[in-house]
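Supplementary Note 3. Input sequence used for the single-chain structure prediction.
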Amino acid sequence: MDRATFENWLEAYKRAWEDRDPGAAADLFTADANYYETPFDAPVRSREGIRDYWSDATRYQDGIEFSYEVLATTENVGIAHWHTEFTRLTTNSTIELDGLFVVELDADGNCTVFREWWHKIG
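The predicted structure, written as discrete structure tokens, is reproduced below.
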């Protein structure tokens, strides 16, 4: 993939997260995608599973601000450093996360494998 393709995918991911839109997030993935929220757990599998995961993950988030920096791209992998900040509605506290994405896209620009590593700041 080239840098522009990866940036377009990341922009769509950003919109989906900031808008708390599980459907838009799921549409970024293939029907049989694997979504690794952490490198140590089994992946969420399938577009439907990803939609369900996103529905739960964003349910109690508000005021989401997401940013990223593309670190590298290869033929079918993009690597990005990302940062987000949001309010956790259940506690009214600010959450700040920092992490990395490793994203594999198919020829149509849909994600087949998504891996993220993140850490809560503060």
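Strands lie at 29-36, 44-45, 61-73, 77-88, 93-105, 111-121. The CA atoms of residues 67 and 83 lie 5 Å apart.
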